[in-house]
Design brief:
alpha+beta, phage-related protein like fold, 7-stranded mixed β-sheet, 25 strands, 17% helix
């Protein structure tokens, strides 16, 4: 006879799962569809004070990626720089010619930004007499040299001995290949490998009436005591996800390794600084411009999580037709105030964790499309039999999660600092 616990799980070639020879139990669900209960539990957790922990809230609503190890390796790829910056004036090569064009030596700050056959526009330098900006063409490159690039001027007949100044920005334009060219210098857009550690977060509740909770996880109802414990756990996770420091150590007493996750505040690829005393609409426009253009470009709608000081200054601004604040909108169970501009939309929310961690006048702009959560141990609840072990005459309920957050396109996120 088949026992009640002898349920068999069969997975066919198409990947679908069937339960045979037994009832559909919690154990069977865990074996056949391990993500089902995890998603349901996350769906219950996000209903506990979502406004207090926006980062944790968004990461749960978006969904976590399973991690096979406590050390998470991930890759991020940034777009090639749209501009190049001169490290020195462009100087004439004596007796150097490319056909009938005199050749010049050019040095830039980032040699990986330019390749042979690139065209570059110097918008602040006049070209021919028609008032058009000068355009130069890269004809050769020797990246081992101090002045690695050989260039010619397309529309400036007599450039002189030197052109441009140190720090001058040049706009990268399209490459210009010859009629017989088959190949072009490749763009080395190799992803950059980074890593973060999954930190083990725990919360414990001791209450005898919760003894049968483990058999009802899908229909999980949260008691008042559990809610307080899990809320405290989420607040701690929020602080670690934002401002945690990546580290690992071995406990000298237990010889047990402890991992600490790195906060996304330190992963952001850029920072915007504004005056705290004279914060104005101009500063807000500058924030919007830097958050949505250039290297920071990403989604047209981003999230600004801010401390109370920054929210106060935003609230005192007189919004105009160019910058406008809309009514409250709700995403991921969180109430945001939208600030709209020609550059994009910022969804602003007060995050009390910034105040608690000494960042009341700071904020962080996050692109939710490039925020990823990795979970080595999804949120789960376990019972400790403390009565049998002779510790206490109680049933202990322990909530555990091992996870971390990463920014997959760091430059799409930026810190906002009022000085």
């Amino acid at each position: 006879m088949t026992s009640p616990d002898s349920t068999s799980i069969i997975t066919n070639k198409e990947g679908s799962v069937k339960v045979v020879d037994g009832p559909l139990t919690v154990n069977a669900i865990r074996q056949g569809s391990p993500s089902l209960l995890t998603n349901e539990i996350d769906g219950r957790i996000v209903k506990i004070r979502p406004m207090a922990t926006p980062v944790d809230q968004i990461s749960r609503m978006v969904g976590a990626r399973p991690a096979s190890s406590m050390i998470v390796d991930y890759y991020s790829v940034d777009a090639k720089m749209p501009m190049a910056v001169l490290a020195a004036p462009i100087t004439r090569i004596p007796d150097g010619f490319y056909g009938t064009f005199p050749t010049y030596r050019m040095q830039v700050k980032d040699n990986d930004a330019i390749a042979v056959t690139d065209t570059l526009m110097l918008s602040s330098v006049d070209g021919d007499n028609s008032g058009r900006p000068v355009v130069i063409y890269v004809v050769a490159a020797d990246k081992g040299s101090d002045t690695p690039y050989t260039v010619i001027f397309i529309n400036k007949t007599d450039p002189g001995e030197s052109v441009g100044l140190k720090g001058l920005k040049m706009v990268r334009m399209g490459r210009a290949a010859g009629e017989l060219d088959v190949q072009t210098p490749q763009f080395e857009a190799l992803p950059v490998k980074s890593s973060n550690y999954c930190q083990i977060f725990k919360a414990q509740v001791e209450q005898s009436v919760l003894a049968k909770l483990s058999s009802k996880e899908v229909g999980w109802t949260i008691s008042d005591q559990e809610e307080v414990a899990i809320m405290d756990m989420r607040l701690g996770m929020e602080k670690s996800f934002l401002f945690g420091v990546k580290a690992r150590l071995t406990d000298p007493r237990r010889f047990d390794e402890v991992l600490f996750t790195e906060g996304i505040w330190y992963q952001a690829g850029s920072e915007i600084s504004c005056s705290s005393a004279n914060f104005s609409n101009d500063d807000l426009v500058n924030i919007m411009r830097q958050a949505f253009t250039g290297d920071c470009s990403g989604s047209s709608r981003k999230i600004l999580m801010a401390g109370s000081g920054l929210v106060e200054r935003l609230s005192k601004l007189d919004y105009t037709k160019v910058i406008g604040a809309s009514d409250t909108v709700t995403y991921w169970g969180i109430d945001f105030t939208e600030i709209r501009s020609k550059f994009g939309v910022l969804c602003v929310v007060l995050n009390e964790v910034f105040d608690q961690c000494g960042h009341a006048d700071h904020g962080m702009i996050i692109d939710p499309q490039y925020l990823a959560k990795y979970s080595h141990i999804p949120f789960r609840v376990e019972h400790l039999d403390l009565k049998s072990s002779g510790v206490r005459n109680t049933d202990a309920l322990v909530a555990t999660e091992a996870s971390c957050l990463v920014l997959r396109h760091p430059k799409a996120h930026c810190r906002v600092v009022l000085e």
